[in-house]
Specification:
Blueprint: E1 2-7, E2 12-19, E3 23-31, H1 33-36, H2 44-66, E4 75-81, H3 85-102, E5 106-110, H4 111-118, E6 132-137, E7 142-149, E8 152-158, H5 164-174, H6 181-189, H7 214-226, H8 229-262, E9 267-270, H9 277-287, E10 292-293, H10 297-300, H11 305-317
Parallel strand pairs: 1-4, 4-5, 6-9, 9-10
Antiparallel strand pairs: 1-2, 2-3, 6-7, 7-8
Helix pairs in contact: 2-3, 4-11, 5-6, 5-7, 5-8, 6-8, 7-8, 8-9
Bound molecules: 5'-O-[(R)-(carboxyoxy)(hydroxy)phosphoryl]adenosine and zinc ion (ZN).
The site of 5'-O-[(R)-(carboxyoxy)(hydroxy)phosphoryl]adenosine has 20 residues, from helix 5 and helix 6.
Amino acid sequence: LFVLGIESTCDETSCAIVESGHRILSNIVASQEDIHEKYGGVFPELASRRHLDVIIPVLKKALETANIRLQDIDLISVAKGPGLIGALMIGMNTAKGLSVALQKPFIGINHVEAHLYAAMMNLDHRTLSFPALGIVVSGGHTFMVKILEIGHYQLIGTTQDDAAGEAFDKVAVMLGLPYPGGPSVEKLASLGNPSRYSFKAGYVKERPFDFSFSGIKTNVLYTLKSLSPSCLDVEKKHIAASFQEAVCGDIVKKSLKAIQHFGCKALFLGGGVSQNERLRHLFQMSFGSFPIFWPSKALCLDNAAMIAGLGYHQFLKRPFSDPLDLEPSPRISLL
Ligand code: KG4
Ligand code: ZN
């Protein structure tokens, strides 16, 4: 079964061709960093316009790279949300148009669920052991779920304020680093001392598996303000390192606790922040031989291969098209 995946939830326009949920024949991603950089974050209206400009060229390139024709596609799988409404509409309408023109079914997929699926994409599904812990740490979302099977989740914890990636992006702006912030903070942090400052991620009263990253962000801001201009440049790398250490350490600590508490047999991570090498290192140090699965770096960020992959599995369970009046859902949750 050849599935065309379409992703346009935020600031990446992507089309992919994936065979039977696993074999990625193409995964073309057009990033919009150039237009959002000067705003230090995504400018929604500009994002929608760029999606509209590039979606057809991206689709053509995905077909060309996979070396298949439009008529050979069996299913169209599109990210229906959560995301920016204007951006989502471009992908959704493209999917509907193709579905009508080609007389092929289309299916709307939850983007954050697809982030979790990305870590399973290269695995033999017969060997997966559930329940497992799933963690998505991206620019828009941070949550932990107990995965009972693909498509069946129980929410364990979520963020009370900023998503992990959002905190990285905001701290990057404070440090005067280029957009997108996560990779810039990681780069600067690699030169600094992570124990120079004792930043702490938030603890949410009576919700031990929830996250809070807005306090640490304010802490970074006040620390920067308290420094004299002469030592600011030297200290920035230590601030980046200490901030990264606190955020990553918090995610690892809460994951360990959740695995014990919920009897999980494996851990799946996804989302942009799961690219972070320090996070991966801390997980590996704390979890020993416990099975942890990460997406390849290309599959951590927003991409259409994960949308196509998950679409395949959902279609196997429910083999009919979504209705043509399916609306994009800017705010859907996972459950
Ligand atoms: O998953 P993603 O592409 O988009 C969303 O669905 O939100 O994640 C993007 C987020 C951004 O906030 C970016 O700064 C962060 O992931 N990110 C990182 C790293 N690479 C990307 N954060 C920390 N370290 C990184 N290496
Ligand atoms: Zn995403």
